[in-house]
UniProtKB/TrEMBL annotation, chain A:
Keywords: Membrane, Transmembrane, Transmembrane helix. This is CU044_5270 family protein. The keyword Membrane applies. The chain crosses the membrane at residues 44-63. The lineage of its organism: Bacteria, Bacillati, Actinomycetota, Actinomycetes, Streptosporangiales. InterPro entries: CU044_5270-like.
Automatic annotation (TrEMBL), chain B:
One of its GO terms (biological process) is DNA-templated transcription initiation. Coiled coil: none annotated. SUPFAM superfamilies: Sigma2 domain of RNA polymerase sigma factors (SSF88946), Sigma3 and sigma4 domains of RNA polymerase sigma factors (SSF88659). Keywords: Sigma factor, Transcription, Transcription regulation. This is ECF RNA polymerase sigma factor SigW. The lineage of its organism: Bacteria, Bacillati, Actinomycetota, Actinomycetes, Streptosporangiales. NCBIfam families: sigma70-ECF (TIGR02937). PANTHER family: RNA POLYMERASE ECF-TYPE SIGMA FACTO, RNA POLYMERASE SIGMA FACTOR RFAY-RELATED. One of its GO terms (molecular function) is sigma factor activity. Belongs to the sigma-70 factor family. ECF subfamily. It comes from Actinomadura macrotermitis. Pfam families: Sigma70_r2 (PF04542), Sigma70_r4_2 (PF08281).
Length: 374, 198
């Protein structure tokens, strides 16, 4: 196992400083002119979400009435394989010819508040990203971000929060320290818009995305199997990581419906991946989901975590698709066996999440929505 | 070299002379700015790196009178300054790691498809890896990232952080052990299914 190499690869390769930045930096000590600017700082990059306008992959719940499925039925079967591909095949020729691709994501992390009024969960580290890119190089691209208010996670959490006096700030344990999240939002800030960008998604060009195979086996061989040269002994192909991989691909690449269907089929066929029926996400949208086998997690006191944050729980990765369109709604990590920091939570509790708020092709340069999602 | 014979070798000579001729410090900037920027951009993000890399050289420039001229190579000194400045951006670093755990880098450069495939595979371990890096005590994280991202030798890390050589290796060993544990623990198949069926 070469964890050093893994860390290096995970950090990736940043864009080099621009000539303008270098000139400015040099001027800092030659000219004594240090106007520091406060800018929106991008997190490592949310890719484009590859579903939306072209959405055409139907996922049908099998069962009485052909597509109904009882809401809340625990194990409604998702016929990803057949229905998804049939629908995708019929629409595959309608690959969108839009000019600008955009995606709008919300990311959040649950934290536990333990108060006299009771225990409740809040969403913190709450951020919305909006990215657009022209289909071809030179059409431009832009990357926006804003902090969203920290808030009680669900209606049940909100009830306890109200009994707690509806506080506007939340001091919670985060990894190895306490951090206080607040209910304040920030304005959208754009991060270095590029007039000459466009035409690339993740590390693929529009052409390379277009040329991806749609065959599930080919996609699985390419994205879901270990490669020669991967660090030995690493759990690179666990069910959980496969969910994350497919989610990332669908988020980053504007793939055609056929490729999207292929990725969904490839994931659904993997051992350790199960359809779990209907899931309602934090935006109140109901979709059909696949989930990984659960993983056991243990938090120790090694990094100073208080007793209440220590212990063992298990969780699984869940990926949710719109039943009618096949659009990716998001992915999240959810609690399976309560314990440790989540001993007071129920199975299904969302530990962290990426919600796809919107995405698709537009004819003119897209702009981020003013309205807050929550 | 234009340096007079008695001048210290390498960067130290340039820094020494820049005490009287400030513009000479530009050579230090030119030699190391891109590298320091890259370290900070990977550790935090490109835009914070713009500010912090500039600040690193401003701090270095102001502190050039105190530079130990017995050290020919200014690299560890500059990484040390950059690391201290990065330490003030703990929230940014935490957010970077949180984001890293969830999503892949939106890299600008078009890459080879095979490289993408490899990257996506690697992305799978990002969650546990990034969380493990985030959970490291600051001292261990600094050592780890100076070695991994900066490519510094143990000796250089010791100079950069002003800690004994032995401390560098013990911190790095502890950090690696935690990362291995975090990565190894992500395999539910081995633990739950295969283990149980044997």
């Amino acid at each position: 196992m070469d964890e050093i190499r893994m860390v290096r690869e995970a950090y990736g390769e940043p864009a080099p400083p621009t000539l303008r930045e270098m000139t400015r930096a040099r001027a800092l000590f030659t000219d004594e002119a240090p106007p520091r600017r406060r800018r929106w700082r991008l997190k490592a990059g949310i890719g484009l979400v590859a579903v939306g306008a072209a959405a055409s992959v139907a996922i049908a719940l099998t069962g009485p009435g052909g597509g109904g499925g009882t809401p809340g039925a625990p194990h409604a079967q998702v016929d990803l394989d057949r229905e998804a591909v049939l629908a995708a095949a019929s629409k595959a020729e309608q690959v969108p010819a839009g000019k600008y691709w955009y995606s709008d994501h919300i990311t959040g992390q649950s934290y536990i508040m333990r108060t006299k009024a009771g225990t409740y969960a809040i969403a913190g580290a709450h951020t919305e990203f909006f990215r657009w890119a022209g289909a071809r190089k030179g059409m431009g691209e832009g990357f926006w971000g804003r902090d969203l208010p920290a808030r009680p996670l669900t209606a049940a959490d909100e009830a306890v929060w109200k009994r707690d006096g509806s506080p506007k700030s939340f001091r919670v344990w985060s990894n190895d320290h306490y951090y206080t999240y607040t209910a304040a939002a920030t304005d959208w800030k754009v991060d270095r818009p590029s007039a000459i960008g466009g035409g690339t998604f993740g590390r693929l060009t529009t052409r390379q995305v277009h040329d991806l195979p749609s065959d599930p086996a080919a996609l699985a061989a390419r994205f879901l199997k270990p490669k020669p040269g991967d660090a030995k002994g690493l759990a690179l192909n666990t069910p959980r990581l496969k969910v994350l991989t497919v989610g990332t691909l669908l988020e980053e690449l504007p793939v055609s419906p056929a490729v999207r269907a292929g990725l969904m089929r490839a994931l659904a066929r993997q051992p350790g991946i199960h359809p779990i029926g209907k899931v309602t996400d934090l935006l109140g949208r109901t979709g059909v989901a696949l989930a990984s086998d659960p993983v056991r997690n243990t938090a120790t006191g090694e990094f100073g975590a208080p007793k209440a944050e220590q212990g063992t729980f298990s969780s699984r990765a869940v990926i949710v698709f719109d039943q009618k369109t096949g659009a990716l709604l998001g992915q999240h990590e959810e609690l399976v066996e309560p314990g440790g920091p989540y001993r007071a939570q129920r199975p299904g509790f969302v530990i962290n999440y990426v919600l796809v708020r919107g995405l698709g092709w537009a004819e003119s340069q897209p702009k981020p929505p003013a309205r807050l999602p929550f | 070299m234009i340096a007079p014979p008695e001048a210290p070798p390498g960067d130290a000579g340039v820094i020494g002379r820049s005490r009287d001729e400030p513009e000479l410090f530009g050579a230090i900037f030119d030699a190391y700015f891109a590298e320091i920027h890259r370290y900070l951009a990977r550790r935090l993000d490109a835009h914070t790196a713009d500010d912090l890399a500039a600040e690193t050289f401003a701090v270095a420039f102001r502190g050039r009178d105190r530079y130990d001229l017995s050290r020919p190579n200014a690299r560890p000194w500059l990484y040390g300054i950059a690391t201290n400045l990065a330490g003030r951006h703990r929230r940014d670093e935490r957010r970077k790691l949180t984001a890293l755990a969830r999503v892949g880098p939106g890299a600008a450069a078009a890459g080879h498809e095979d490289a993408v495939a490899a990257r996506v595979t690697a992305e799978g371990v990002r969650g546990p890896l990034a969380r493990a890096v985030a959970a490291l005590p600051a001292g261990q994280r600094d050592v780890l990232l100076l070695v991994v991202l900066g490519g510094l030798s143990y000796e250089e890390v010791a100079v950069a952080l002003d800690v004994p050589f032995g401390t560098v290796s013990s911190r790095l060993n502890r950090a690696r052990k935690k990362l291995r544990k975090a990565l190894g623990d992500t395999d539910p198949l081995l633990d739950d299914q295969e283990g149980a069926s044997r």
